[in-house]
Amino acid sequence: MTPQELRAFCLSFNAAVEDFPFNPETSVFKVLGKMFALTYLDGRPLTINLKCDPEDAVRLRGEYPGLIIPGYHMNKRHWNTVTADGDLPDHIVRELIEDSYDLVVAGLPRAERLRLDRP
């Protein structure tokens, strides 16, 4: 997955925006103000921090050693760092991004979730 594809996919979700709260190089993708992905798009290898269910996080780290690791500078129970331009298939990277987005949306107040469902 290229940095451009990664950015486009993250921004394809309903109400997703790109923000730069830490520095001009670190892209933070948010939905209604809540972060679901964090990446340095110029990094090599290209990695992305994604929210993950704690049980799934541990399982994925075991399934893809070295490609999915505990979240760098994040709560390691709830976040993984995923290598997006390596041996991990793009469809898995996309699934993990979508899962992260869905987890964040599920944690939003009901009124905000309902707002996302409106066209």
UniProtKB/TrEMBL annotation:
Pfam families per record: YjbR
Keywords: DNA-binding
Name of the molecule in the record: MmcQ/YjbR family DNA-binding protein
InterPro entries, per the entry: YjbR, YjbR-like_sf, YjbR/MT2646/Rv2570-like
UniProt superkingdom: Bacteria
Keyword DNA-binding among UniProt keywords: yes
UniProt source species: Streptomyces acidicola
Molecular function GO terms recorded: DNA binding
